[in-house]
Specification:
Strand order of the largest sheet: 3-4-2-5-8-1-9
Structural class: alpha/beta
Number of domains: 2
Radius of gyration: 26 Å
CATH superfamily of the largest domain: P-loop containing nucleotide triphosphate hydrolases
Distance between the termini: 57 Å
Helix content: 25-40%
CATH class of the largest domain: Alpha Beta
């Protein structure tokens, strides 16, 4: 750190691991009192000092939180004043600019050229859209600061920041590490959890760090620790989420199924649910540009959801191919394929000459349409009742569970305020609704007697393979 604005802290190991991350996208999902904001500010300062004329952006979803929390914390740690007229400062000695913006202002940053960006309280954003938009703006050409101080406890990391490296795309040595950071509290299996905790298969650029409040307990005030102990009984859900960093606990405003899912977790009805070869596998399909499939079995008096799958932009032949693949790989013996009532409409006949339902039956499957739902609200109430006898496999239905966790009422943006949320009474169409709609169809099929073990039109792996060859339309 330069002598003009020297800031020193003794970091705990879990904090240093995040600060020294050499990945493009480091993230910290940690409990209260773990120093997340401090770590973000330290990394921001480091980026601003390592590269002169750098430009970076700190984002918070709401303006009031940006003004009253994020900017205030930055001023407290750095001793610098951020004018509210511009919401940005120039870091002394390097001419690097640090900008502060809230979510609604991001759409105006179309031509910005960033060297870094950071989202504070990333769980406040419903999706990764804002993060990914900023990814496309992080392409600033950087040069190393010749006066950058790399001495001290973290000298290896600091030297790494300004050391030239080979860029195969440019076919030359370059300088500058462009990064995007997030810090967050746990909030269920949201987009932050999927990228930094669970991880994206095949993507090595994300680096997630976790810690609960107890990891920093010895640095926190004793009365704060005592109050948290009381919260363990006063509000156990908040304690598990914010103190223990429990990703099973979430706070989705207007969520339909969150409380029911929490009860299912506590009752161990979300966990390992094995495929039972003695019973047929029924498939409940919500077909469209984004199609969602639940694979379920009736076992005793309960329904076991053993697999969930969704994909975009594929036709009905793709789903037949998937059914064949699962029949061969997982030894599924299919019972009914339950589809929405509109799959027997004449819309697809204009293109293919047959409805989607007829196409599915043409491959030999016992496809049955559901009766039209009287109302979505009525279906949601029925589904909550149904979940009392449902068991869900946590691994193979993971994305489906995420859909159920995040499924919520649409916010009335015009009538809502920072203090009061007003909802429209209708589900939000944010992408999670596809899996939730298909789950609602599962409950309807169950009460209609369509998920049963006495189906005589079951499809074996051998039959599925034979029909796939016959039709030659399976992708």
């Amino acid at each position: 750190m330069p002598v003009d604005n020297e800031i020193t802290f003794d970091l705990e190991q879990f904090q240093a691991d995040f600060y020294e991350s050499r990945f493009r996208y480091p993230g910290a999902v940690m409990g209260w009192g773990t120093g997340k904001t401090l770590l973000l500010i330290l990394r921001v300062i480091t980026q601003s000092e390592a590269y002169p004329d750098n430009l970076g952006l700190i984002v918070r979803k709401k303006f009031t939180d940006l003004r009253d929390s994020t900017i205030k914390d930055f001023e407290r740690y750095t001793g610098l004043h951020v004018p509210m007229s511009t919401k940005e400062i120039t870091w002394p000695g390097t001419n690097s600019v640090i900008m502060f913006r809230h979510g609604d202002e991001l759409t105006g940053l179309q031509n910005i050229n960033l060297g870094w960006y950071a989202i504070e309280q990333a769980e406040e954003f419903d999706s990764a859209d804002e993060f990914d938009m900023l990814r496309g703006r992080t392409r600033r050409e950087l040069t190393a600061n010749p006066n950058f101080d790399t001495s001290g406890q973290y000298h290896d990391f600091l030297e790494w920041l300004i050391t030239p490296y080979w860029d195969p795309e440019k076919d030359k040595m370059v300088v500058g590490r462009r990064i995007g950071m997030v810090i967050a509290n746990a909030n269920g299996h949201n987009w932050v959890w999927r990228r930094w905790i669970k991880g994206i298969i095949g993507n090595t650029e994300y680096d997630g760090h976790e810690a609960d409040t107890n990891a920093n307990r010895h640095n926190l005030p004793s009365d704060f620790i005592k109050d948290l102990a009381a919260m363990q009984s006063d509000n156990a859900a908040k304690y598990r989420r914010y103190v223990l960093n429990d990703h099973k606990e979430m706070d989705v405003k207007g969520a339909y199924y969150a409380a029911t899912l929490a009860e299912m977790y506590k009752a161990d009805r979300i966990g390992k649910v094995k495929h039972n070869i003695n019973y047929p596998v029924h498939v409940i399909l919500d077909f469209g540009y984004t199609s969602a499939l639940w694979f379920v079995q009736e076992v005793g008096c309960n329904v076991h959801a053993i697999r969930y799958y969704e994909e975009q932009g594929r036709g009905i032949e793709r789903w037949v191919g998937l059914l064949k693949e699962y029949a061969v790989e997982h030894k599924y013996r299919y019972g009914d394929i339950v589809v929405p009532c509109d799959m027997d409409s004449g819309c697809t006949k204009i293109i293919t000459g047959e409805s989607a339902l007829e196409t599915l039956r043409g491959f030999g499957y016992n496809a049955e349409p559901l009766a039209k739902e009287k109302s979505v609200d009525e279906g949601i109430v029925r589904t909550i009742k149904f979940m009392a006898i449902a068991h869900i496999d946590a691994e193979d239905c993971e994305q489906g569970i995420v859909c159920l966790e995040r499924y919520h009422q649409r916010l009335n943006a015009t009538m809502s305020t920072d203090e009061v949320d007003v909802f429209t009474g209708s589900p939000d169409k944010d992408g999670y609704d596809h899996g939730a709609d298909a789950w609602r169809y599962v409950s309807k099929a169950f009460y209609a007697g369509m998920i049963r073990n006495d189906s005589h039109n079951t499809v074996t792996a051998e039959q599925a393979a034979k029909w796939a060859v016959k039709y030659k339309r399976v992708g």
